[in-house]
Amino acid sequence: MSDRGYPEAVADEFPVPPTEFTDREERPIEIRPYESTEDGYEALVEMYDAFDPADRAQGIPPGGETRIREWLDAILGDDCLNVIAWCGDEVAGHATLVPDGDAYELAIFVHQEYQRAGIGTHLIRGLLGHGQAEGIRKVWLTVERWNRAAVSLYKKIGFETSDAESFELEMGLRLNPDADADADADADADADPDTDPEENGGER
Amino acid sequence: MKVLCGIGGSDDSFRALDRTVERAAVADDDLTVAVVENPDSSIDPAEIARRAESAVEEAGIDAEVRLIEGDPGSRLVELAETEGFEEIVLGGGHTSPMGKITIGSIAEFVLLNAKTSVTLVR
């Protein structure tokens, strides 16, 4: 949709996957763009099949293997961007960008066994780095307002609230300048090097 | 049962209409379809009302289709209270390409403010 709000400033550069790190539980984690292999696909299905339904958000991931496969087929398409956090052969987490009009919708899931270990931050930064490198301009997401861990992660990344009127918060991030705004953005940056001090004014 | 189905022209509101009309035919509900002014819909209320009337006709039931002006959520709640409706039926939300469900602003208002039961059709 074109009426969503995004920050004026373009986000900082994010690391482009593949990247590696050790999580807070001393597990080696590798962040890689999704490779469309049968083993990779099945590992992803397995992660979602074992996903705690209590961590579902607005209907996703769906329950049951059949629905999981249907959903994955839709969001692993060629026009989508997907990044996986691997722990050996096991999928620890998955983040995706799905096109919606002139922007991309973001979602991220970390399996319960791998939560609170710093994987989400690396995974979302990896996805945004992948998106930035692919030239994606605008990203939006919705998050349930009670999900404080997620909301604070998104804010830390640079997302700003664009709609606080609904049950869910809507947030936006600008990954790359608009094609026709390149010149303007440069001029603005020279004239006003500071980011707007009120850029988070909408979040209360 | 005395049922009020509110529709504003979104895809999910037409799904709610079809399901409610179908159900009314089976359950012999006393159905009223209220066409509200949804600011997010680009379809003209008169056109929405025409679609509602043809759905009602097709199902062979006797239901009234009314155009409701003003704020959709509060008018639906008010109508339900003043005219003794037992249930309000609305569309169950928009699904993004990602598969995430978002409930519309009209449904949010009605859910939080109605004294009757509210059904969201998925």
UniProtKB/TrEMBL annotation, chain A:
<dbReference type="InterPro" id="IPR050276">
    <property type="entry name" value="MshD_Acetyltransferase"/>
</dbReference>
<feature type="compositionally biased region" description="Acidic residues">
    <location>
        <begin position="179"/>
        <end position="204"/>
    </location>
</feature>
<protein>
    <submittedName>
        <fullName>GCN5-related N-acetyltransferase</fullName>
    </submittedName>
</protein>
<keyword id="KW-0808">Transferase</keyword>
<dbReference type="InterPro" id="IPR016181">
    <property type="entry name" value="Acyl_CoA_acyltransferase"/>
</dbReference>
<feature type="domain" description="N-acetyltransferase">
    <location>
        <begin position="29"/>
        <end position="176"/>
    </location>
</feature>
<dbReference type="GO" id="GO:0016747">
    <property type="term" value="F:acyltransferase activity, transferring groups other than amino-acyl groups"/>
</dbReference>
<feature type="region of interest" description="Disordered">
    <location>
        <begin position="178"/>
        <end position="204"/>
    </location>
</feature>
<dbReference type="Pfam" id="PF00583">
    <property type="entry name" value="Acetyltransf_1"/>
</dbReference>
<dbReference type="InterPro" id="IPR000182">
    <property type="entry name" value="GNAT_dom"/>
</dbReference>
<feature type="region of interest" description="Disordered">
    <location>
        <begin position="1"/>
        <end position="28"/>
    </location>
</feature>
TrEMBL record, chain B:
<protein>
    <submittedName>
        <fullName>UspA domain protein</fullName>
    </submittedName>
</protein>
<dbReference type="InterPro" id="IPR014729">
    <property type="entry name" value="Rossmann-like_a/b/a_fold"/>
</dbReference>
<dbReference type="Pfam" id="PF00582">
    <property type="entry name" value="Usp"/>
</dbReference>
<dbReference type="InterPro" id="IPR006016">
    <property type="entry name" value="UspA"/>
</dbReference>
<feature type="domain" description="UspA">
    <location>
        <begin position="2"/>
        <end position="122"/>
    </location>
</feature>
<comment type="similarity">
    <text>Belongs to the universal stress protein A family.</text>
</comment>
